[in-house]
Write a structure and sequence with these properties.
The chain is mainly alpha-helical. The protein is built from 2 helices and no strands.
Length: about 35
């Protein structure tokens, strides 16, 4: 998949922009980089 959440810029994007974030809660850390944890 090309949608790899390795960039912190993905966090700046709103859930509306990224449907993937809508299915997964931000608190889950799925769309967060390991370093940002």
């Amino acid at each position: 998949m090309a949608h790899v959440h390795m960039i912190p810029a993905c966090e700046s994007l709103a859930p509306e922009t990224h449907p993937v974030h809508s299915t997964k809660p931000r608190s889950d850390g799925y769309d967060r980089a390991p370093t940002k944890r």
